[in-house]
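Give me structure tokens for this 314-residue protein.
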Amino acid sequence: MQVVELSEIRRVLVYSELIERMREALLANWRGECDTPMPMHLDVAPEHAEVHMKSSYRRGGKYFALKIASTFPGNAMRGLPMGSGMMLLSSAQTGEPVALLADAGHLTDVRTAAAAAMVARELGRRDTVIGILGTGIQARLQAQMHAEVLDLETVWIWGRTPERAAECRRDLEVLLPRTEILTADSPAEVARESRLIVTATASRQPLLSAADLQSGTHISAVGADSVGKQELDAGILRQAALLLVDSQRQCEKLGELQHAPAEWRRAVEIGAFCERRPAWDRAGITVCDFTGLGVEDLYIAEYCYQKLAAESAL
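Here you go.
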């Protein structure tokens, strides 16, 4: 079994390729080509930590994948990253492990941001301003990934503490030197300044209400990925002209959709939207509810392994 360290993984990642890879994964999921069971979650109560385990197999594919990703908030006081994890790629012919991607959770973060940027592209967004709620690694990656598909001029950042918002702003000024990075005092201010918003927090209370939003706003909600989490008031989902989900069955249990169960029947899976786009009121609000799928982990693990294998064959 090959062990691939984070430095090697980072070296082969090309963001534009990952955005397209997530489109392929979500299309395959929608077409029923993959066996992707519901995630398993562990709560590590003494550390106020959570661990997510996801897996997937594409029928006819060479591999199946198992991913473990964890968040331990107390690590910040230990001088350690809060996120960690790994992906295991195994042979679908023999079951033997092929590669352990010791990614420290990075591939989960990257594929999450790539999927959101892909949806913005598929919706035909032309925004030059993006607002991001949250100041963690996901905030940084969301700004970078959306810069791959949009001509971003301004990024608005909101965080619960001014110190972390300022730190995130400084990092983004380095990562996106031609883009203006501004900090907001509230989620509502982010909504006043932008019509493309990404929510990337671990909130269990709504951060935005329908009254905060401008017409034509799109929200990609990536933070709610387990029972009880919520970033959007349910009224936003009820009023949405288009409600997208990465998976109906996951979102109704783990995502924003758990707080608006009556909207389940009109939720459109991203893969279905990519394949045959429905009409919607472009002046209305659009929402995409992301819970993160095992098929995305499979596709990004295969991507890394195949790129590294191609290098070694040269």
